[in-house]
Amino acid sequence: MLTDLLSAIAKDPIAALTVVLAFIAVVLTLVRMYLSKKQKKK
Amino acid sequence: MMMKLKIVFLASFILFLAFFTGFTTSVRKFREFVIGLPEEIFVSPGDEVIINGTILNTGWWWLHDFNLTVTGLPKDYNYTVEPKWFEHVRILREWNPQQGVYRVPEKFSIIIKTPENASGIYLINVTGQEFQSWKRVSNSSLFILRVKAHSLANFTITDIVVPETVVEFTPFNISFSVNNTGLTAGQINISVEIPEDWNISEKTKSLTVEAGGSLPVEFEITPTNTSGQIVIFAEYPYRETILNITKVGPILIPVAMPTEEAVTDYLAVIKELSPYMIILSLVFLAIIVWNLWGIYKFRAARKKEEKMPKKAAESFVS
After folding, report:
1. B256 touching chain A per CB within 8 A
2. CB atoms within 10 A of CB B101
């Protein structure tokens, strides 16, 4: 199921780009949240 | 009067001449005949075979004191010709609407008893001769006698392997073992019956299996999207008969290739969502930029904080 979805995404460039951007956005959001928590503690 | 007689005489002479010339130059001879025999006879060692032959008198006259002789058989072969001698070979005629008047032949038969260990191919010559006329007219005819041992091979088909599920347009194999449980080696013809629109690597296979031996057989079948049944059909000679083996397999319903179909389904959905995907990408891009800006600001504030205590210390020293 998941493999099928991933292989379908891999076949469509726009979908692949969206997924990559979503991943980066999530990572950066987490980094930003972590940094803001750190600053509040100080 | 004399003139009329001359004309009648001349006409009679011409008629007589024409008849005599026709009679003497006729294709049909006074005495001639044809011996009719089958072209080829198959017999097994130790068996007795009866060969039916005919003598057709094709001449003008009957033949008398007619004798039949058979040559070409090995010495250890027993044979009899019935009847061996004819007092008359007559000219018999019959009539039917299809053929009109036709000549009917005299009949005879040759009974040959082959020895137990016999084998081979023989050219047998049957000669007929009449002994009444001074010409002693004779004629002969040939036939081939083939002595071949019967196959005592007996076959079974075991270990049939047919896949439980088959996928549309994807080849699959069926395999089985052909075992010869008979006393002699034998040949077997195997065919697989499949639904009309399915494809098979070979329609029939011909195998020779030694006595007590076994051979694996495999067929590659490509199904379509229609369901059907596989039937294994084997045919082999045993003594004078042809025996059959039929193995009916289960009804196979080809299934569609699952993964490919799912992928194509997902692809279709993705294609439909393509415009939304672009918007989503831009949103994610904005989030990324916003986050990067935020992270940059945090870093700048941290650097400021680090510089501030240094400056305070310097002012304290001075």
Report:
1. no
2. 8
